[in-house]
Amino acid sequence: MALHPDRLFPVEPGPRGIARRLYAEIARLPIVSPHGHTDPRWYAEDEAFPDPATLFVKPDHYIFRMLYSQGVTLEELGIQRRDGAPVEADPRRIWRLFAKHWFLFRGTPTRLWLEHSLADLFGIAERLGPENADAVFDRISEQLARPEFRPRALYERFGIEAIATTDSALDDLRWHDRIRASGWKGRVLPTYRPDAVVDPDFAGFPENVSAFVRGAGLDAVTWPNYLEAHRVKRAFFRRRGATASDHGHPSARTADLDQAAAARLFDTVRDGGGSAEERELFRAQMLTEMARMSREDGLVMQIHPGAVRNHNPALFAAFGRDMGADIPSATDYVRALKPMLDLVGNDPRLTIVLFTLDETAYSRELAPLAGHYPALRLGPPWWFFDSPDGMMRFRELATETAGFYNTVGFNDDTRAYLSIPARHDVARRIDCAYLARLVAEHRLDEDEALELAQDLAYGLPKRAYRL
Amino acid sequence: MALHPDRLFPVEPGPRGIARRLYAEIARLPIVSPHGHTDPRWYAEDEAFPDPATLFVKPDHYIFRMLYSQGVTLEELGIQRRDGAPVEADPRRIWRLFAKHWFLFRGTPTRLWLEHSLADLFGIAERLGPENADAVFDRISEQLARPEFRPRALYERFGIEAIATTDSALDDLRWHDRIRASGWKGRVLPTYRPDAVVDPDFAGFPENVSAFVRGAGLDAVTWPNYLEAHRVKRAFFRRRGATASDHGHPSARTADLDQAAAARLFDTVRDGGGSAEERELFRAQMLTEMARMSREDGLVMQIHPGAVRNHNPALFAAFGRDMGADIPSATDYVRALKPMLDLVGNDPRLTIVLFTLDETAYSRELAPLAGHYPALRLGPPWWFFDSPDGMMRFRELATETAGFYNTVGFNDDTRAYLSIPARHDVARRIDCAYLARLVAEHRLDEDEALELAQDLAYGLPKRAYRL
Amino acid sequence: MALHPDRLFPVEPGPRGIARRLYAEIARLPIVSPHGHTDPRWYAEDEAFPDPATLFVKPDHYIFRMLYSQGVTLEELGIQRRDGAPVEADPRRIWRLFAKHWFLFRGTPTRLWLEHSLADLFGIAERLGPENADAVFDRISEQLARPEFRPRALYERFGIEAIATTDSALDDLRWHDRIRASGWKGRVLPTYRPDAVVDPDFAGFPENVSAFVRGAGLDAVTWPNYLEAHRVKRAFFRRRGATASDHGHPSARTADLDQAAAARLFDTVRDGGGSAEERELFRAQMLTEMARMSREDGLVMQIHPGAVRNHNPALFAAFGRDMGADIPSATDYVRALKPMLDLVGNDPRLTIVLFTLDETAYSRELAPLAGHYPALRLGPPWWFFDSPDGMMRFRELATETAGFYNTVGFNDDTRAYLSIPARHDVARRIDCAYLARLVAEHRLDEDEALELAQDLAYGLPKRAYRL
């Protein structure tokens, strides 16, 4: 299946023509990637990527969750077990297994991303399958060894203008320092992700908090010192270019306790204590504290709520987290965000970007909230919804209430570096398809649609994330 | 952007042709507006509307919520503050600010409504923007001064056959009396809206209830007298042409307490007492009481549940209610309505029209309920969903289970008088677009679609609201 | 309205052509009907169906719920009352009443099913209405008397390869035995449906449980004997060809109590005792017990949760269950299924097919769950959503996350035997329409779409249900 130039455009000739014209103007705009999970070490060391299986299969939870759902074991895919028991070590065998099951991805975004990468980067236009698995493996392997497939060369080739990584609040950002020290002109920014020190259910939370406070040069693990450690570390991140923080919580709940109550709550949970409700309340309080700090230091605040993490305990025991077993659940925003919004929602200097795994919230809660509060913006469709139909539903459900300018353009949100151009391309095509329909239905003029297409692809992410 | 004759029709030539033919037959049908918020005083006094800002910007929460979300203050828009602090008083400056931000409304129904009004009423076909703001302001102002832009002249010009206002149960309907006394043949009907006396959280509830009971010529503020006051006031409304009541509650909850328990609950809440649960229970009980009375006096009962009102306390403190800070929330109907339906749901003489701000209820709860209970009908998409895509979703999600004849046609629900033709036009176009798809997919014959288009635009609202 | 060969296909010529080509290849594939409610007695006795009203109107809750919602009484439709009071007995009068209200079904799947049956089976291509009600009645009646309209002849004519009925765990399967004893080569399979003995709220539960345990040749009504009775009866069903069980619960809740606690719970509820919570917990525990047994005996487990049954108490009192008064409600799967999935979710030998009446779960919960757990598959759109738009939404919302191969093809789920070809035809057409869009948008190659169309229509139901 060759990459068709009209892919994802509307089928009707009228809107398809409009979409083509819009897309032609934005296809080559630089990529601004304000939220994602690539590894800063790649840009620092600039070494060749290993084999195709390690590059495409083993780190991609979209891929191995689908294979697992159809009876392929993670061991066969070479995923490391916690107990060190042997797993498949031959990348070629893993690749063959993947190729044999490639048909499972029909109709999924993974299909689009991989085929785009194979075609555009590696010149492989045939459909992957058992019969060409070896040849494709060889062809990719050969090219990965070349200098033009090193991380920095790809950064240039992809037309990236800026890319943010996501970094633990405990991270020393050494790779970011190395990138800056190297004199390379690529713009790789850290993002402040404090889960390890704000979520009492995070593995090692008590030790994390102690290390965090001490790392800020403070002694006693007290609530004021803990907050001060956040301020110190946020400043540390900002000096390395960070413009945003990121918060992945089970719910969107926020709280605004008085500081004495917050200090007591901190004392309850800091050593691993506290009920489930108290731990949830602590996370809720910390969202509000982070918003307060954002108002001061200008970090854009991203909230990614609503995943039930590690839903599969057997899999978690054997392989750990991020193994494709995180499942969305119904997520309330209207009541959950109120304590935080009561405090900071009217402040236009602050930007809070909301994400969801519950699409019912788009039209019912998120668009009405973002269409009112100056501090709120809507993030793009996330995770399971980072897909053509998912993106189209987002625009259809959010635009009539929130407009376009309360959204922030696209986030690729990926650790799959090679898929980044494909992902931005899908988003640009779908936005053009949506705009083309509005034009074809005489709801928008084409010159406005073009301005919007440019803003959605480039202007909005730059401005919203202060890049 | 001139008004295109094919706007909102399907893009494909086949269904577009069908939609055109259907629309041509219904475009000029009279407007029946059974639910809305225009001011009866307009029709009574028939005075010229003031300037464009006062007409289009200041009273329209769709408009100022969007501007506010992007950092424009309500003071700049001339919205009166409760503390009397000065706000922008120059309509031209307000209009300029609005025009400068007009691009924010791309993709929203506000865009469609305003452009329809400007083009059709004022002959202004250019797109609004900073460069023509003054010229447009002048052109509108000039025309507003003319007799043909007075409320009654517009009523005729719009082809309105009947229009309902929404009136507090405490209202003396003096403007309605003035309209009738004037001999003008326009049909303006009141609607019984008892929030001020059935919602214990309504500002001034205790005083409202006392005044209400006394106003009915009764002395003691007792449960029986309170119910009797409703009967008296409903009859008062009916004598002035009312055919419906309207109920805006935080939830759809109903209750059917025995009368002794209801009397005790009334005594608990009537002076401002009662827990949150008791106040909610009182509202729930009152929906059932209203249904019981509707069964007797024939008023069609409208239920508009699910808005979290005044979500933004700072804004509420400064400007009061209806400032664009009402946010929908998840709304249950299946369990909430059961007590009331157990009592009256099987009665085909009663009509209860259900609305929602939670689109997930369309296919899951509302269509199955309305497709079974003789007393239930589905209101049109409401508020945030009074929009092209919102209307299309409603038909797509409700029709396969509830059909068309358990729906009631369109409500414009607006206080923006000049937008009424635009709003009905959008609804008619979208219904024709939906019907055209069914015909093009051979799910419906075109003669049936035409009958349906006529019923949806005219027959159903007349029959459902007994107009 | 004649049956148009392009009905339900996309309107655009490009995808319409693709859909036609796909459909041409699958239209005549055999019907595999792994879940439904036809009466095994029909196939055993092979007698003529009675008149049109008894065949089409009286047993079809889709039909009489719509008529009832518009003020037609169930008595007028000849539905038997529990108190034996007289109801309409003349099938011709019932049919006339139905024909008079046939316009109510515009836009509904009932319209498609009935017109398909009338045209294809009875050669009646005119639209039903008051003017031709008698003629149509006569024409159908006359044909029903012919041998080619007997159940077995229709089975052949419909091209059925296998059809499952749904049978109480208390059933002796005599009709299934009669079918097998008759030597007829049609394949009619029972399905194990244990509601009467696993749901403490089922009418007669205590007696049912006693009879069930005794029926297995066991004495004491104890938890171990009760479980053993399930094993015995499941084996009895399997020997008669059953490949699946079916479970219709108010929620999807599961539990995994230790056996001592489960035994105590059984003792609490078995004689009609227990709180609402305990009765719900018992149902939850039984889903897990059934999953455990399925893992051993290989029965595919179907879960149909989320209907609030008998929502209308007056109707229930007069007419009993299944009278069109079951209403869907919001249904959680992520937390509800966890206890069962913790136990069996990773077992690829087990197949659990999930259904829903809450469409919001498709993209938020069901596709993510089925796209991960090897034991899970998604059933087709159910009940209110067994409709063209309902099916299209299912594909649009589930495919991008779960793909096609975690779904199981179509279930007709009907007791309306004559509608079976129409229902499968609708599903095949909609799947072709969806696939055609993917091809037209260059997301899938046409040869893949054809393979998928064949799998969705035939291969997947056979494999998923082990037929």
Tell me what you see in this structure:
The structure is a homotrimer of 467-residue chains. Chain A is an alpha/beta fold and 467 residues long. Chain A folds into 2 domains: 13-47 and 151-464, Metal-dependent hydrolases (TIM Barrel, Alpha-Beta Barrel); 48-149, uronate isomerase, domain 2, chain A (Orthogonal Bundle). The first copy, chain A, is built from 20 helices and 11 strands. In chain A, the strands form 4 sheets. Chain A has a 4-stranded parallel sheet with strand order 6-7-10-11, with helices on one face. In chain A, helix 14 packs parallel to helix 16, helix 17 runs parallel beside helix 18 (388-402) and helix 19 (420-440) runs antiparallel to helix 20. Chains in contact: A-B, A-C, B-C. Chains A and B meet through helix 16, helix 17, helix 18, helix 19 and helix 20 of A and helix 4, helix 6, helix 15, strand 9 and helix 18 of B.
If helices are DSSP runs of H or I spanning 4 or more residues, what is the number of helices of chain A?
A: 20
Which structural category fits the helices and strands of chain A? Answer: alpha/beta
The greatest inter-chain interface is formed by: A-B, 48 and 46 residues
- Quaternary state of this entry equals homotrimer
The assigned CATH architecture of the largest domain in chain A is Alpha-Beta Barrel
Average of pLDDT of chain A: 97
Low-confidence spans of chain A: pLDDT under 50, at least 5 residues? Answer: none
Count of beta strands of chain A: 11
Radius of gyration of chain A: 22 Å
The CATH class label of the largest domain in chain A is Alpha Beta
Strand content of chain A: 5-15%
* Strand arrangement in the largest pleated sheet of chain A: 6-7-10-11
**Which term fits the overall shape of chain A?**
globular
Helix content of chain A: 40-55%
For this structure, the CATH topology of the largest domain in chain A is TIM Barrel
Number of domains of chain A: 2
